[in-house]
Design brief:
Elements: H1 10-18, E1 33-34, E2 37-38, E3 40-41, H2 54-68, H3 86-95, E4 102-104, H4 108-119, E5 128-132, H5 137-149, H6 154-157, E6 158-161, H7 172-181, E7 186-192, H8 204-213, E8 218-221, E9 240-243, E10 258-261, H9 263-266, H10 308-324, H11 326-348, E11 354-356, E12 369-373, H12 377-386, E13 389-390, E14 392-394, E15 398-401, H13 410-425
Parallel strand pairs: 3-13, 5-6, 5-7, 7-8, 8-9
Antiparallel strand pairs: 1-2, 4-10, 9-10, 11-12, 12-15, 14-15
Helix pairs in contact: 1-13, 2-10, 3-10, 4-5, 7-8, 11-13
The structure holds pyridoxal-5'-phosphate.
């Protein structure tokens, strides 16, 4: 990261925006308003903003449907039977994967189950899953129900690693040590890439390496990582991963998720899986014959035909990522979140109402900063909201602020600082 001497002034923030190589991208998004002004939208960790191009990408498919009906499956520039394919290249780039290793499909929780069917295969003493205390509820429920499905009790099968007493974050060394300690009992390591509550980015490479040393498969939930932090899933030899497209990927509420399956598994038809016709070898998909033969690569995990309308909106967003480039996005992200951290520290110095729990080191976080609210609770955050901020409160006492490099600005960070100062003074 370039060394920037941050300053707490509007002029400084303006200057940073002027020299920002990504400043033009803000105009490619619809910015929600509050009291007739653009809101300070720091909530892209929950729902990314709508690209202005989304409607035209969607409209093109709607028109094709209107004009062609069922023939759209095999006609047009991208026949619907191939609808998932154009997104592969860009998803692969964001994930650090081969195009054969990724595919857009289903929702995140659904995909997590499908991947657990394939990669959580308890046997004898090896039946435990290493996961974290306080995982996102859907991930907890998926793991609980999967271990039950195999006949185990969650209390015996789920090994939840917790921060040390008095700490908020997991130390990499502790995760690695836990893997070593339980190497003979672990059937799976399943963690997030970036933790949704604290904003901590885990050392996926080191975790994968340690697990691999002991023959334990590793999967990551990348809901808060994709489009936010650099990823190299293939080189890190992560076994599988899934994500959602509506947070940092800006593909719209509930839109299509996707899976990564490492190449070393992609060509193994023996890996157990729940199958559907869209995962069957393409040449024979419409032969309507008995006997499932999976396609090679991540496509072999497909079940249903492609969600064409959702994929259209995803494509609008991926094209923006392609134009901006993940390297430039990340470079700005480090500067912008660094500035938010600076503004927060300057503003809350010597006050005990708030505490930043997200790691301070840029490589250990994405764009989100999580604040523990010690005093004032949700009503403190409500006063920020009344003054134009959109952020997200998580029970019991955390507020998450995510300045998103594609559409947020340094001036918004500065403006939030003013709102914060007034709320603490008032
Ligand atoms: C957002 C999020 C989900 C959401 O799951 P859906 O199936 O998309 O509803 C799951 N897990 C994590 C870690 C998340 O952050």
């Amino acid at each position: 990261m370039p060394n920037v001497a941050y300053e707490l002034s509007r002029e400084f923030a303006q200057q940073m925006d002027e020299i920002d190589p990504l400043k033009a991208f803000r105009e490619q998004f619809f910015l929600p308003e509050k009291q007739g002004k653009p809101a300070i939208y720091f909530c892209g960790n929950s729902l990314g903003l709508q690209p202005r191009t989304a409607a035209s990408y969607l409209q093109a498919e709607l028109e094709k449907w209107a004009e062609m009906g069922v023939e759209g499956h095999f006609e047009g520039s991208v026949p619907w039977v191939d609808a998932r394919k154009p997104s592969k290249q860009q998803l692969a780039r964001l994930l650090g994967a081969g195009t054969d290793e990724v595919v857009a499909m289903n929702g995140l929780s659904v995909n997590l189950h499908l991947l657990l069917v394939s990669f959580y295969r308890p046997k004898g003493n090896r039946f435990k899953v290493l996961t974290e205390v306080g995982a996102f509820p859907s991930d907890q429920y998926a793991l609980e129900s999967q271990v039950r499905y195999h006949g185990y009790r969650p209390e015996e099968a789920l090994l939840e690693i917790a921060p040390r007493p008095g700490e908020h974050l997991l130390r990499t060394a502790d995760i690695l040590e836990k893997i070593r300690q339980h190497k003979k009992e672990l059937a799976l390591v399943m963690l997030p890439g970036v933790q949704y509550y604290t904003g901590q980015c885990f050392d996926m490479e080191a975790i994968s390496r340690e697990a691999r040393l002991h023959g334990i498969p590793v999967g990551f939930d990348l809901a808060h990582a994709i489009g936010n932090v650099p990823l190299s899933l293939h080189d890190w030899e992560v076994d599988f991963a899934t994500w959602c497209s509506y947070k940092y990927l800006n593909a719209g509420p509930g839109n299509v998720s996707g899976v990564f399956v490492h190449r070393k598994h992609g060509s193994d038809p023996e890996i157990p899986r729940f199958a559907g016709w869209w995962g069957h070898v393409e040449e024979k998909r419409f032969a309507m014959e008995k006997g499932f033969i999976p396609m090679k690569g991540a496509d072999g995990w497909l079940l249903s035909n492609d969600p064409v309308l959702g994929l259209a909106v995803l494509q609008a967003s991926l094209d923006i990522f392609e134009a901006a480039g993940m390297e430039r996005i990340r470079a700005k992200s480090e500067l912008l979140t660094g500035y938010l951290e600076f503004v927060l520290r300057e503003t809350i110095a010597a006050r005990d109402a708030l505490e930043i729990i997200t790691p301070s080191k840029p490589t250990d976080r994405g764009c989100q900063l999580s604040l523990l609210v010690h005093k004032g609770g949700k009503s403190l955050v409500d006063t920020w909201t009344k003054n134009g901020l959109v952020a997200d409160w998580r029970n019991p006492n955390v507020v998450r602020l995510a300045p998103v490099p594609l559409y947020n600005s340094f001036q918004e960070v500065y403006a939030f600082g003013e709102i914060l100062r007034a709320s603490l003074d008032g």
